[in-house]
Amino acid sequence: MKVARLKKYAKLIARMGANVQKGQDVYLYGSIEQPKFIEMVTEELYKLGARRVHVKWQYSDMEKYHVKYQSLETLSTVETFEEEELKYMRDKLAARVFVGSSNPDALKGVNVAKMMSAQKAKAPVLKPYRDAVDGLHQWTIAAVPGKAWAKKVFPNERPAKAMELLWEAILKCARVDDDPIKAWEKHNKDVHDRCEYLNSLGLKELKYTSSNGTDLTVGLMDEGVFAGAVETTKSGVSFNPNMPTEECFTTPKKGLAEGIVYASLPLSYQGDLIENFWMRFENGKVVEAHAEKNDERLQKMITMDEGAAYLGECALVPFDSPINQTGLLFYNTLFDENACCHFALGRGFNECVKDGLNKTKDELNEMGVNDSIIHVDFMIGTSDLSIVGKCRDGKEIQIFKDGTWAF
Q: Whole-angstrom Cα distance, residue 258 to residue 281?
């Protein structure tokens, strides 16, 4: 891959992704498989005026050893120095940049019960720090290829060729062309305009139907709004959390979901693929679910806490999105969730409520924003998906037809 093109991508992540402000601290979580690229991103962050870039190297294959060899007590403990760093990030409102290349099979074979027990135990310590900076700082997630990930996506290619093909797919999906900044400004406007139209309709509920058996009605909040692409902090700094992104999304009202939904793509979750699964909702909650493969993972996921069985997101993505047009299953939620429409179980978004950044957690929960320690996206879009919106004035409007926008 040409260095000049990679530098464009690095600049795009720093500028349009995190939009780091002069004097701001940045935590950069970078894959050890692409040190030269992480070096490029670091330089671009400093060029924007970052006060200090704290680089945290990541390698997903190491996690299985922590789960295997640490005692449950140790694995469940947030050490004092770790909490002090969280306090520092909270107080500094540091920007966070994630540039990962995780191995989809990194956690295959781990003790699922042990790992999830540890996550539950740490949540009461970790979650308040996440909540404290929600809407107050910038963050962005992007990707770079790794050997294991590339071979998973391109199993019939030599390792070097697989890496090159995955680089090309990543850059294409992230709109790294002659002028990536201009391309993203245009894309952001298109997503913004679609969200504005959806918000003008006064939608009360969305009804999803598909020939695969999906027949689900999801209720929306009166105060809810659709958002997408660009987000803005409470202080007015804009940023792009996901690169790539194709979605217009909202947070549904907790307790208002009835029917059944079938996943249209496998879910890569904590080192395993959950495949061919469905969920049935009553009063907004998953009351029955089954997966043909890794059903145990699915059942553990929806019982992580009380909110894990409720929806936190409805995302609208056309079936002919650029990610889907690649014809690839990326085994990576950042990409696969932007291939077609999806839902997410767990935590909802305060930015999907009018003036949500100025409301307390209790106020948001009272309006119907679900809360949980998880937020897991799963894909439900198909080529024949229909979504009909029912408005508060009683009108019905076709939102999606044959898997894509009806407007």
A: 5
Of 156, 178, 225, 217, residue with least CA distance to 396:
217
Pairing mode, if any, of strands 231-232 and 342-346? Answer: unpaired
Helix, strand and coil in the chain, % to nearest 5? 40, 30, 35
- Determine the distance from the C-alpha atom of residue 2 to the mean position of all C-alpha atoms in its chain, rounded to a whole number: 28
8 A C-beta contact, residue 327 and residue 271: no
Q: Tell how far CA 279 is from the center of its chain.
A: 20
Query: Which amino acid is it at 3?
Result: V
Which DSSP helix (H) or strand (E) runs through 36?
Answer: helix 35-47
Closest CA to 127 of 336, 338, 371, 350: 371
Whose tokens are 């894509």? That residue is: 404
Query: What is the distance, to the nearest Å, from the Cα of residue 313 to the centroid of all Cα atoms in its chain?
Result: 10
* pLDDT, tens digit (0-9, with 9 covering 90-100), for 196-255: 999 999 999 999 999 999 999 999 999 999 999 999 999 999 999 999 999 999 999 999
What is the token pair recorded at 392?
Answer: 């508060």
Token pair, residue 339, equals: 């291939």
C-beta atoms surrounding 235 within 10 Å:
11
- Side-chain-side CA neighbours of residue 192 (13 Å): 11
pTM for the full predicted model:
0.90
Tokens linked to 136: 């107050």
Please answer whether residues 100 and 31 qualify as being in contact, where contact means their C-beta atoms are separated by less than 8 angstroms.
yes
Write out pLDDT tens, residues 345-378: 999 999 899 998 889 889 999 999 999 999 999 9
